[in-house]
Write a structure and sequence with these properties.
Number of helices: 10
Shape: globular
Order of helices and strands: HEHEEHEHEHEHHEEEHHEH
Number of strands: 10
Largest sheet: 6 strands, mixed
Distance between the termini: 12 Å
Number of domains: 1
Structural class: alpha/beta
Radius of gyration: 18 Å
Strand content: 15-25%
CATH superfamily: Ribokinase
Length: about 300
Amino acid sequence: MTPSTPPTPAPDASSAARTPPIVWSIAGTDPTAGAGIQADLKTFHGLQVYGCTVITAVIAQNTQGVQRIAMADAKTVEAQLDALASDLPPRAIKIGVLGNADIVTVVARALSRLDAYVVCDPVFGSSSGTNLLDPNAIEPFLSRLLPGVDVLTPNIPEAERLCGHAIQSPAQVEQAAATLYTLGAGSVLIKGGHAPGPFVQDYWTNGTDGLWLTAARIDTRHSRGTGCALSSAIAAARAHGLTELDALVLGRMYVNQGLRLAPGLGKGNGPIHHGSWPVHAEDRPWLTATADAGWTTDGLGDASTPL
């Protein structure tokens, strides 16, 4: 199964500048602007959508770790959602840090009243290991929020936490994605960056179809905000009218471009580069029906479906 059309640069820049699609980010802050709300806004700007924000947490952190977290009051989150909904309704929404059960419930209730494509990046912890979601929020996340999500984008540790078992093989990735799909998400993309090997392999399924997106691993310690960039790029692409599969490919291209051009900032895990629409062939993933096929081709062989 292939995307209907390859991702292309944004529509005519002059028309996009006049009436850009509106995309919301519901997430926490990052003073380094490498992740969270700030990184989402950079991604939105690069992909020519108008970004609005709902702050769920103010987080003191840098490239070396998290120092302090202040969760927003659920009523404050609800007020932000209501203010935006009455004036700047979204075409797409990206969800990141939610923090606790009260915020999960408020956001789920808001989603039920909106007509927007929803991408959820289930952030349970920072890249440095700090917990960002109360365990008591898992149940409402699954029962109330997930049914309103169009694509869920967990990494392997997040998928393990949601499924309740280890994921150590491609078959277990596929099974975990199928399990998460049955819990209510419209589709699931399990990100493979935490798995070892020379390639990064993401797996997507909508319950009927499934495929692997494979790309060569980019050797850099500056990978801060990859999950944020991927989910916000998918939301931006969908707001522009790309199909879901095209949006997934565009999102992976945006992240690969960002890793390849990472500016090398900070003493720890520095931010990726945030640019415009990715157009270089080297950033494109190749699509295969199986994970093994992705390992045996570079995107040019008969086993794959190059874009």
